[in-house]
């Protein structure tokens, strides 16, 4: 690892950090550019390294004729070992 700047930590709900309402309003009031290329240029202008290179990725996709499309969602199939229960309807499964 080059530096600790590249480390990202998850939002831990156990840590009780209180954020001032003024800071929240300031944060929410910032508008970001819609295009990732513009965001990456702003990061580089401020001396930060973007995690991705969108311009390069788009150029490579154009050269190779790759069209970005959403990934199809995998459908989970029920295996024979899966036990199905309807815990919210217990009266249907009581032996009368």
Keywords:
96 residues; mainly alpha; 3 helices; initiation factor; TFIIH-class transcription factor complex binding; Putative transcription initiation factor IIE subunit beta; translation initiation factor activity
- Taking pLDDT < 50 over at least 5 consecutive residues as the criterion, the unreliable ranges are none
Give the integer mean of the pLDDT values: 76
- Bulk shape: flat
Give the DSSP E fraction (strand runs of 2 or more residues).
Answer: under 5%
Largest sheet: none
Report the C-alpha radius of gyration, rounded: 24 Å
Number of strands: 0
N-end to C-end Cα span: 65 Å
Give the helix level as a range of percent.
Answer: 25-40%
Helix/sheet category: mainly alpha
**Count of helical segments?**
3
SSE sequence, one letter per element? HHH
Protein described:
The protein starts with 20 loop residues before the first helix and ends in a 32-residue tail after the last helix. With 96 residues, the chain is mostly helical. 30% of the residues lie in helices and 0% in strands. The chain contains 3 helices and no strands. The mean pLDDT is 76. One of its GO terms (cellular component) is transcription factor TFIIE complex. One of its GO terms (molecular function) is TFIIH-class transcription factor complex binding. Keywords: Initiation factor, Protein biosynthesis.
Topology:
Layout: H1 21-28, H2 36-45, H3 54-64
Write a brief structural summary.
With 96 residues, this protein is mainly alpha-helical. The chain has helices at residues 21-28, 36-45, 54-64.
């Amino acid at each position: 690892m080059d530096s600790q700047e590249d480390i990202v930590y998850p939002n831990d709900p156990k840590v009780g950090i209180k954020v001032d309402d003024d800071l929240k309003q300031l944060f929410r009031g910032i508008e970001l550019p819609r295009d990732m290329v513009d965001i990456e240029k702003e990061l580089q202008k401020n001396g930060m390294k973007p995690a991705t290179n969108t311009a390069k990725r788009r150029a490579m996709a154009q050269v190779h004729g790759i069209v970005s499309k959403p990934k199809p969602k995998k459908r989970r199939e029920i295996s024979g070992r899966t036990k199905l229960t309807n815990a919210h309807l217990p009266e249907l499964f009581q032996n009368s």
